[in-house]
Amino acid sequence: MNNSATAIFEPAPQYPTPARDFWRSFSSNKGALLAMIIFAIAIICALLAPWIAPHSPIEQYREHMLQPPVWQSGGDSHFLLGTDETGRDILSRLIHGGRISLMIGFMSVILSLLPGIALGLLAAFYPQNLGIAIMRVMDVMLALPSLLLAICIITILGPGLVNTMIAIAISQLPAYTRLARASAMAEIHKEYVTASRVAGAGVARLMFIVVLPNCMAPLIVNATLGFSSSVLEVAALGFLGLGVQPPTPEWGTMLASARDYIERAPWVVTMPGLTVLTSVMAINLMGDGLRDALDPKLKRAA
Amino acid sequence: MFSFFLRKFATIIPTFIGITIVAFSLIRLIPGDPIEVMVGERKLDPVMHAAALHRLGLDQPLYVQYFTYLNNLAHGDLGISLVTREPVMKEFLQLFPATVELSLFALLFAVVIGLPAGMISGLRRGSIFDHGVMGIALTGYSMPIFWWGLVLIMFFSVNLGWTPVSGRIDIEFDIARKSGLLLIDSLLSDEEGAFKSALMHLILPAIVLGTIPLAVIARMTRSSMLEVLKEDYIRTARAKGLMPLRVVVVHALRNALIPVITVIGLQVGTLLAGAVLTETIFSWPGIGKWLIDSISRRDYPVVQAGILITATIIILVNLIVDLLYGVVNPRVRGEK
Q1: In angstroms, what CA-CA distances link B261 with A207, B156, B208?
Q2: Ordered DSSP codes for B106-135
Q3: Which member of A97, A192, A295, B265 has the lowest number of beta carbons within 10 Å of its beta carbon?
């Protein structure tokens, strides 16, 4: 019985599942794969920071101030990447800082992606009044570069960890709203949407269950790339003294005071910056890989 | 053509009104009333408090305050700085040329390097050059520019001693202010070495500010070039036996540049946001540093004006790019 069934259906090709298809396409991109590994290491370090970090991020080893990294003369294997101006271990601060920087970046993407999707879908489903109103507000927000918009919001809310998150989320909201609206507009007049409308689906169902899944690919790609710009913005705000406040270890905040030690202790400057650069590059490379794998149309254009 | 201009112009009006509302609301959204915010920690007796509210018109209904604000704006009155007691407009006009000079040179740096690099990458797709340029572009695109500035200072200013660390020109020069752009003013003055000093001060900040636009322009030029090279008219041109150079320069490049021009226009936002960071690192006396200093000094009228001006510049530049795009590419004009 079983044998004859296979015999009959044998010519039918084995289609890979979407997940497998995605993975084959993604993993053929060596750069994206490497980036994903680097990113995974960063995430693991951040999650396990209290157990991995050799020292406490805020403990000041007064007798080891401005100790160079281990490979330079005068380095100490106790402090692999050296210590800062108050004798805090830079490696431990970077590991713990990853928690703050990556967490704020991630949360701000979520906080702008979800309302952005909702607003974009609303704008696409009610293009007459509500849609126009939403898009006008987004136009106003887009008139300011996102860093300046974030600075503007911080001015109102005051600096701090949660406020940084909110400010970056708001500053990136227009991008997601526009994208969600544009992808939904492309789907909304297709037959399957009409079919479920005729079948009696309500607006909410049409929005979130029928249309949204077909708009996810560009949104996911944009969210990945948005994550990298969030991490950059968190660092920039921290550097300007408007983000996370010291002594909380955060990559940008670590650089804020580093300027004074450029001559005496260059490692205080190089290490946090290299960390930001590496993580942002990894996320961007991964985003490019995701885009190519999820959206073959874009691949040909790029 | 004229109706295209009018239509484009009409689209920015609601955005501009929105921006004035945002700038107007800024001071009023800060917790505490504006007078308390302005005097800061000091205690103010209630009579003086009420008098100050009345003097600034803050005891009026909100909509009256908003229309007063709009009326002042229309007369070029952006308010008075709380710290220097100077009109904000006057301070802005003094500092703005510095930012313009810095941004122009950053953009020049980005275009002069990014455009040819992206072009050659597109033509030699898959070559070592292509991979190299795209690797550098990815790095530039991911660069925390405030750190990049520090690294360049560390290397070129501290280690090699080639360039100064901060400012626009050495203090011994006293250049008469004509255009506000120090490179031009120092050339016009008779002072020996003033131009060189101004140039050396400008190089590092311009590189830092131009890094992200450079990466974006190189990537865009490359993909636009790849797109155009696939077109039928390129094949036709090749089939006609035209010289490869002629095909590239006359047929491909011209069409590939259309989207690149838009992208260059869009960099104005990147430049103005980047100016905040770059000017802070290099103590460059422009509007970016002015804005950040004012936030830390709680000089809210300046912050308000800075936001308004920045947004206005970006809206206007985007409008100009849109219009230029319509001039270069007639197909856009008919679209609604």
Answers
A1: 37, 32, 21
A2: HHHHHHHHHHHHHHHHHHTTTSHHHHHHHH
A3: A192
N-to-C CA span, chain B = 13
Q: Within an 8 Å CB–CB cutoff, is residue B325 touching chain A?
A: no
How close is the nearest chain B Cα to the Cα of A89, in Å? 20
Interface residue A299 vs chain B (CB under 8 A): no
Alpha-carbon distance of B318 to A216, in angstroms, equals 29
Q: Label residue B190 exposed, middle or buried (CB < 10 Å: 0-12, 13-18, 19+).
A: exposed
Peptide bond into B164 cis (omega under 30): no
Nearest by CB to residue B29, choosing from A147, A156, A262, is A156
Model pLDDT for residues A10-55, shown as the tens digit of each residue: 656 667 777 787 788 778 778 888 988 999 998 998 888 888 878 7
Amino acid sitting at position A156 = I
Q: Show the CA angle centred on residue A108, arms to residues A107 and A113, nearest 5°.
A: 100
A72-85: pLDDT as tens digits: 777 677 777 777 77
Region label for A295, one of left (φ > 0), alpha (ψ between -120 and 50) or beta (otherwise)? beta
Beta bridge partners of B306: none
Q: What ipTM score was computed for the predicted complex, to two decimals?
A: 0.84
User: What is the pLDDT at residue B109?
Assistant: 94
The whole-angstrom distance between A246's CA and the closest CA on chain B is 16
Residue type present at position B107: L
pLDDT at B166: 77
> Which residue type does B188 have?
L
* Mean pLDDT across B283-288: 89
Radius of gyration of chain B (CA): 24
| Phi, psi of B80, rounded to the nearest 5 degrees | -115, 135
- Closest CA relative to residue A293, chosen from A96, A27, A13, A101: A27
Query: Rounded to an integer, what is the distance from CA B92 to the centroid of its chain?
Result: 15
The answer to whether A152 contacts chain B (CB < 8 Å) is: yes
Residue of B nearest to A279 (CA): B142
